[in-house]
Amino acid sequence: MSKLIKIGLTGGIASGKSTILGYLKEMNIKCIDADKFGHMVYQKGRPSYNKIIQEFGQDIINQNDQSIDRSKLGPIVFSDPLKMKQLTNIVWPEMKELILNEFKEIETTCPNDKIVVLEAAVLIEAGFNEMVDLIWVTQVPREVAIERLKTRNNLSEVDACKRIDSQLTNEEREKYANLVFKTNDDYEITKNKVQNEINNLLNNYNK
């Protein structure tokens, strides 16, 4: 193995992805946040910007700076699965292109980097899993995720359940996983598992 190893990190909301990312960064592993590209594609001048306005109308434009007001777009797409599908059909392909370019940039400018991690909540749904070599999935029991979400985002039980139920289930994600982290375990167990997996990949890199 001599190419850049690409790991996709995904998991449900409040499932401990940030915890895993923290351990990876401690080991100086380069991490990419797919959300960064999610924000970029909404910017004026990007191909998705015009397509979104064509699809959802002028009312979603912020009149001050002509940016897309995601607080206006959000209620439209979250209340209608068909509208959400229309939106993701626009933004996911452009995000994928930007992520591929980022991978190429790392390979060109950081030749000593052997591993890069792409963190994306929608890794599987968006087809980003096709761009990575390994898939790591974070998991907690549903009731734990609900409690974390209620506390972290100050949501009601009903709203927390809606957000979790709008995503893939643990079982659906697990079908794609090369490795599963149950982040409800002791922190040291999870940290050691991350360190061991990364060290194994690095040790086997040139074999």
Automatic annotation (TrEMBL):
A matching Pfam family: CoaE
GO molecular function: ATP binding; dephospho-CoA kinase activity
Alphabetically ordered keywords of this record: ATP-binding, Coenzyme A biosynthesis, Cytoplasm, Kinase, Nucleotide-binding, Transferase
InterPro entries attached to this UniProt entry: Depp_CoAkinase, P-loop_NTPase
GO BP annotations, alphabetical order: coenzyme A biosynthetic process
PROSITE patterns reported for this sequence: DPCK (PS51219)
Domain of life: Eukaryota
Coiled-coil residues: none
Family statement: Belongs to the CoaE family.
Protein name: Dephospho-CoA kinase
